[in-house]
Amino acid sequence: MGFIMDLPDNLKYILSALENAGFEAYVVGGAVRDKLLGVNCEDHDVTTNAKTEDILRIFSDCKIIPTGLKHGTVTVIYNGSSFEITTFRSDGEYTDMRHPDKVTFVTNINEDLARRDFTVNSMAYSKTLGFIDVFNGQNDLNERTLRAVGDPEKRFEEDALRIIRAVRFAAKLGFSIEENTLKAAYKKLDNLSKLSVERVFSELTLTLCAKHAPFALDKYRKIFFAVLPELSAMDGCEQYNRSHSYNVYEHTLKALESCENVTPIIAWAIILHDAGKPFTRIVGEDGFQHFPDHWIVSEEIAVKVLTRLKAPKAFIDEVRFLVLYHDNLLLGGKPYLKRLLKKYKTSYIDDLFVVKKADLYAHSEFGIKRFEPYYEKSLKEYREIIENDECYSFDKLDISGDEIKALGFSGKKVGQLLGVALDAVIDGKIPDEKDKIIEFIKNYE
Ligand code: ATP
Ligand code: MG
After folding, report:
1. Between residues 355 and 2, which one has the greater pLDDT?
2. How far is it, in rounded angstroms, from Cα 331 to Cα 341?
3. Is the pLDDT of residue 173 over 90?
4. pLDDT at res. 337
5. How do strand 282-283 and strand 176-177 relate by DSSP bridges?
6. Is the pTM of this model over 0.85?
7. 264 and 364 fall within a common domain
8. Is residue 362 part of a domain?
9. Same domain, 325 and 280
10. How many Cβ atoms are within 10 Å of 305's Cβ, its own excluded?
11. Which residue minimizes the CA distance to atom 27 of ligand 1?
12. Is 191 in contact with 97 (CB distance < 8 Å)?
């Protein structure tokens, strides 16, 4: 039986319930991998020879979500935790590069493990039957290697998403892709164009947010650029300038590495922030290279890439904002920041400071010294605005439309006066105090 895995109680309950009903039940895939690596795992996938109707019956007291009935997957919510339970299956052909045309339910755990992508993801553990590792996943785990289960070319032909998943797991685990697996991945790169963009976006996002993303995107850039050709011009694009010590792609990966607060939106903004640089490069009178207005071209590229990948509109909107403003030194002080706050959500500005910081610390020593004071100053101003709840919007302004009406104004004039009053408060000409605002309005014009 080998070693005994320490499993969370809720998972033990799920496995026992299946076994008590006469079925085999294993925790499988990422949960086993992460357990062996000693890292915490949130999702527990369970595989069993019980069929969907058996699973529904066994867990009839639990909330059940029919996640993928056609593929034999249901999600069981037990005691606040959710478990994806899938009947043993082997996948058929993927002629559309998206979904298996049909899944075949099988009776043996080994056949189920054979359909899985990488050996480190193909291990299973049962409470009674122990650890099942037919593809030597544990060995590859010790060697920090991602090796396709079976013939890599065939596996990537079946589902080209596995090529991106190889980079995703390199980014998550800091592992390297085994030589033959990598060769096969490169050989099948053309198949990536046939994938559904939603699947690509989801795997890419997981990749960008993963701990070792800079390592994986450096080492496996060929795969990355195959799905994001718009970014390939950054590779090797030098920037001879005192403020930089890296080329554009290296700088971008450095920025991702120095980012302290990666979210999907921030990760995409960082990866795209300088994508316009290769298209705007000039040599200035100072003899250095410059990239005038590169943020505008980067924004265009961001919109193109994320629209093609069918990212949600709100997602694209924020990434656009972050890319467009990433290089802005925010020299206009509090009034400028307040106008940004008036126009955009606070969360956008919070994220902008995260992106700007990541970008800043991916410059040369000289560049960091040069730009750090601007960053620090604007961050301090921004924090003050938020902490002091300073006025930057109509709802914070200490006067309402009705109160302006009560002064004898009507129609469009009311809105216009609200606007000039807010501008005056934002610019610090008058304090946000009702009597001062009324005085200002009375003297206006
Ligand atoms: P994570 O913890 O990052 O979610 P994971 O290993 O759980 O990692 P999932 O994408 O959740 O990854 O997939 C669960 C399991 O299903 C994988 O471990 C793998 O065994 C299998 N799997 C998922 N997608 C594929 C695929 N496209 N081809 C083959 N097997 C796959
Ligand atoms: Mg998972």
Report:
1. 355
2. 15
3. yes
4. 98
5. unpaired
6. yes
7. yes
8. yes
9. yes
10. 23
11. 162
12. yes
